[in-house]
Here is the input.
Amino acid sequence: MNLSAETRRRLRHVHGYIGLEMFRAAAAEFAAIAVGERQAPEVRLTRMDFYIAASRWESAVRIGATLAREDPTCEQAWIGWAYALRELQRVTEAKEVLLVAEVAHGVTSALVHYNLACYDALLGDLAEARARLVKAYRLDKSLKETAEHDPDLAALRAADAKRRAGDPAEGA
Here is the structure.
């Protein structure tokens, strides 16, 4: 579906409002989008981004799941769906979502591997988390910097620090 210039303008405004955490203004822009364009994938992806930014996790799960099922090639839908599940502390489900997404996106998506590494670390599978990070870094070297501060990878960093300090029991 080709969006009207008006809807494209409103989506730009929504993104700006999201960045400023002006969620009521963003919601008003969504409400002003023509009814016939509200179900367009681009509008719904932006709505998912809005739900994530506003910490409306259940809504983000619903829209992300719907979008991913309707268009499995839409990487953003899979990532958003899994991320919202993770924020709901449903890490095993988040991992399962991205394992399905990996079929379509694993060769090219650093974010799929990076997020799987996070979920593996949270679930205690540090060896798999390390392997996933290697794949993610091959696709996007800038993720190394992100990983240094990501709280989801804290257990992995701690185990690596112990291993470097000479504790042979660590580093699994």
About this structure: The chain has ten helices and no strands. The first helix runs from residue 5 to 19. The mean pLDDT is 95.
